[in-house]
Automatic annotation (TrEMBL):
<keyword id="KW-0813">Transport</keyword>
<keyword id="KW-0864">Zinc transport</keyword>
<dbReference type="InterPro" id="IPR047748">
    <property type="entry name" value="AztA-like"/>
</dbReference>
<keyword id="KW-0547">Nucleotide-binding</keyword>
<keyword id="KW-0862">Zinc</keyword>
<keyword id="KW-0406">Ion transport</keyword>
<protein>
    <submittedName>
        <fullName>ABC transporter</fullName>
    </submittedName>
</protein>
<dbReference type="GO" id="GO:0006829">
    <property type="term" value="P:zinc ion transport"/>
</dbReference>
<comment type="similarity">
    <text>Belongs to the ABC transporter superfamily.</text>
</comment>
<dbReference type="Pfam" id="PF00005">
    <property type="entry name" value="ABC_tran"/>
</dbReference>
<keyword id="KW-0067">ATP-binding</keyword>
<dbReference type="InterPro" id="IPR050153">
    <property type="entry name" value="Metal_Ion_Import_ABC"/>
</dbReference>
<dbReference type="InterPro" id="IPR017871">
    <property type="entry name" value="ABC_transporter-like_CS"/>
</dbReference>
<dbReference type="InterPro" id="IPR003439">
    <property type="entry name" value="ABC_transporter-like_ATP-bd"/>
</dbReference>
<dbReference type="GO" id="GO:0016887">
    <property type="term" value="F:ATP hydrolysis activity"/>
</dbReference>
<dbReference type="GO" id="GO:0005524">
    <property type="term" value="F:ATP binding"/>
</dbReference>
<feature type="domain" description="ABC transporter">
    <location>
        <begin position="12"/>
        <end position="239"/>
    </location>
</feature>
Amino acid sequence: MVAVRLGHPMSLVLEDVTLGYNRHPAVHHITATIPDGSLMAIVGPNGAGKSTLLKAIAGELRPITGRITNSAGRSGTAYMPQIAEIDRSFPISVREVVAMGLWRRIGPFRRLGEAERQAVADAIAGVGLTGLEARPISTLSGGQMQRVLFARLALQDASLILLDEPFTGVDSRTVEDLLDVIDGWHRDGRTVLAVLHDLDEVRRRFPEAMLLARDLIAHGPTETVLTAAQLTKARAVGEALDETAPLCQRAA
Ligand SMILES: Nc1ncnc2c1ncn2[C@@H]1O[C@H](COP(=O)(O)OP(=O)(O)OP(=O)(O)O)[C@@H](O)[C@H]1O
């Protein structure tokens, strides 16, 4: 395949993407191009398909129809699922969880060299957790755990970063700190897509947005997406969602 490298290289292209589970619909016919370096929030009502779309972009769910082209590839993509999906009972320390961010580069069994130990320490410092390196993750607060996950993600050095509700159960001070970490990734030129519910936060900190309600309602600059009319439309679709509908009610 020939890579298209115009003035504005495209890192992520969704072409008529339909996603679902067990033949039930979750996301319908999404077509969108997300340019390299975007800082985009994905918003929409409960059950709109936001997590499903992120999973598919991460390569964890195959589209039923359509195509996702992610030029970062699996190795250049970092995906943070919702915190509820993470097992925190495992007896492992903050330092060990953060160091997992290096696995793709060095493998899980190699001992860390000096430079790698420093990179882990820097990542932990970058999220304000210096001093807690040896703590088992089962003893952390929700906000501290979220910081650990951000530090691990920072070490993955991915060009596409996917965050599913990264601020659930996190106090406002930590949210602002983690938003600053995200800003740093954006300044580095990485592409960041984050599923979020707080529209004020999105308006303040995310230049682009995607509004989803099974269908794509709108995407582009945040102020053009989060209009009263489009939010009303998304809410109406959300209220009418039929969990048992057949695969696709619209002619493909
Ligand atoms: N593993 C699964 N198996 C079957 N159906 C699923 C699965 N995960 C999600 N769904 C269904 O897919 C639809 C979209 O769910 P999804 O979690 O993507 O929505 P969401 O927009 O992220 O919602 P929320 O804001 O509530 O997290 C819902 O109808 C949900 O019940």
